[in-house]
């Protein structure tokens, strides 16, 4: 099979491996095992248009004196195999490259291998997001979890509600237009990466209310509004009318089956202070249990999203608080005590992701990556069937203290540590054995133009030859 994804990969990796050169490489007589002139890539099945949960990323790669062959069932397996091939080719001098003969049978341990970037606390330029996607593809990540909006800013430009960005973004320069969003989705598609947007509610929504009248709950003090606002008001039907129209748009803009709906860290204080909310609680027989009010809101939201034929991901609190969710819901575990939480959620039969132990934004001085490497999504008490429900994990780079100037160096190559644990077999877990691989990968990333920070203490990368700019 042939398609635009493969054609783009051939061009991209020709440059990644050999750099920007027009001259023909000559074969060196020193290496008598043979000269490799091409990599024969065979894709069995028709190319999919978009990557998806459960796609086949397996491949077989054989390199010998008689030639090199990459076989895969899908185009996604071909992409992963070409990346592996690119890492096997070593540059010996300015114009000499070698590759060892080898046979590789490879496939990922987990279906979902994600990285979260937060573009609300600090806006990230499209060029930075694309560089990060390139880095993700070179560590075999396959999901970009785009935490695109939050309390601080709303940079998503909505077709139906354009004032949400006009009034909710930091300013008119810190927004993502529909064309830019489509550009990012397309760039990710070519790399075999899914884009899953997160629109977190009912909390984390202060920026939403700057343009949508009566969306947020009015907070009260001494029986009067105090000028403060809380989570989205779950007592008003107008809230659900807005959400229906908004997520109908999101379903069209983002092609992946899944959208992340958040549902975490909902503060009940403002709801408790509002007399209209109190009356609504009484009407619904919720008593004083505001978790039931949150459940009511989330249930209505989940029905809206299901109605536009989307699946959804949620943070663990939604299920912890008892909301009923669809069987294909993916629950993301992010709090401490994840061993117990994984046991509980998988016992209930839900697909689960782990991110608790992979918060890259938690910075410490020194060599900190082994703690990420030592975390395993199957490290909990449960049956074999429960562990099958853990479909992977995500590493998170929250945006409070990163922006265009440092997000790439802060993320890489530490994220690659998580990528290896999510791809490789469960018994590949020795941090001491991983250290030189990580060091080599960091130097490889630097050569390819990424500002990957030092992670193993004193050392250096040998860079006598050409430095590549990311393509």
Automatic annotation (TrEMBL):
Pfam families: Glyco_hydro_20, Glycohydro_20b2. InterPro entries: Beta_hexosaminidase_sua/sub, GH, Glyco_hydro_20_cat, Hex-like_dom2, HEX_eukaryotic_N. Keywords: Disulfide bond, Glycoprotein, Glycosidase, Hydrolase, Signal. It catalyses: Hydrolysis of terminal non-reducing N-acetyl-D-hexosamine residues in N-acetyl-beta-D-hexosaminides. GO terms for cellular component: lysosome; membrane. Residues 2-88 form the Beta-hexosaminidase eukaryotic type N-terminal domain. Residues 110-425 form the Glycoside hydrolase family 20 catalytic domain. GO terms for molecular function: beta-N-acetylhexosaminidase activity. This is beta-N-acetylhexosaminidase.
């Amino acid at each position: 099979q042939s398609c635009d994804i493969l054609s783009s990969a051939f061009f991209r990796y020709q440059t990644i491996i050999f750099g920007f050169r027009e001259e023909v490489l000559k074969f060196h007589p020193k290496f008598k095992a043979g000269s490799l002139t091409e990599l024969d890539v065979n894709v069995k099945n028709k190319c999919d248009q978009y990557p998806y949960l459960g796609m086949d990323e397996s491949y077989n790669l054989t390199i010998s004196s008689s030639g090199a062959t990459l076989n895969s069932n899908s185009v996604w397996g071909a992409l992963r195999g070409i990346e592996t091939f690119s890492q096997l080719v070593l540059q010996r001098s300015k114009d000499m490259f070698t590759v060892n003969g080898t046979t590789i049978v490879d496939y990922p341990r987990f279906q979902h291998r994600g990285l979260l970037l937060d573009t609300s606390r600090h806006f990230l330029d499209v060029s930075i997001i694309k560089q990060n996607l390139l880095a993700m593809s070179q560590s075999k990540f396959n999901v970009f979890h785009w935490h695109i909006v939050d309390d601080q800013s709303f940079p998503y430009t909505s077709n139906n509600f354009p004032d949400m960005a006009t009034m909710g973004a930091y300013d008119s320069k810190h927004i993502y237009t529909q064309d830019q969003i489509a550009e990012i989705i397309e760039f990710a598609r070519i790399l075999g990466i899914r884009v899953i947007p997160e629109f977190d509610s009912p909390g984390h929504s202060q920026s939403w209310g700057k343009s949508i009248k009566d969306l947020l709950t009015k907070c009260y003090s001494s029986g009067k509004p105090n000028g403060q606002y809380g989570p989205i008001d779950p007592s008003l039907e107008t809230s659900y009318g807005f959400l229906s129209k908004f997520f109908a748009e999101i379903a069209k803009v983002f092609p992946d089956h899944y959208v992340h709906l958040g549902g975490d860290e909902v503060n009940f204080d403002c709801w408790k202070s509002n007399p209209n909310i109190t009356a609504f609680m009484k009407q619904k027989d919720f008593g004083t249990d505001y978790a039931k009010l949150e459940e009511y809101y989330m249930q209505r939201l989940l029905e809206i999203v299901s109605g536009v034929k989307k699946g959804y991901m949620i943070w663990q609190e939604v299920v912890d608080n008892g909301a009923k969710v669809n069987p294909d819901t993916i629950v993301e575990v992010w709090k401490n005590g994840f061993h117990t939480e994984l046991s509980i959620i998988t016992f209930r039969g839900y697909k689960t992701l782990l991110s608790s132990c992979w918060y890259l934004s938690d910075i410490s001085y020194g060599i900190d990556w082994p703690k990420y490497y030592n975390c395993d999504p199957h490290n909990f008490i449960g049956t074999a069937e429960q562990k099958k429900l853990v479909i992977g994990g995500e590493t998170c780079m929250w945006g409070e203290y990163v922006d265009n100037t440092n997000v790439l160096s802060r993320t890489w190559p530490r994220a690659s540590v998580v990528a290896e644990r999510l791809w490789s077999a469960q018994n590949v877990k020795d941090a001491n054995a991983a250290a030189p691989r990580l060091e080599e990968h960091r130097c490889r990333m630097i050569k390819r133009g990424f500002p990957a920070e030092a992670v193993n203490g004193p050392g250096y990368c040998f860079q006598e030859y050409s430095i590549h700019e990311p393509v």
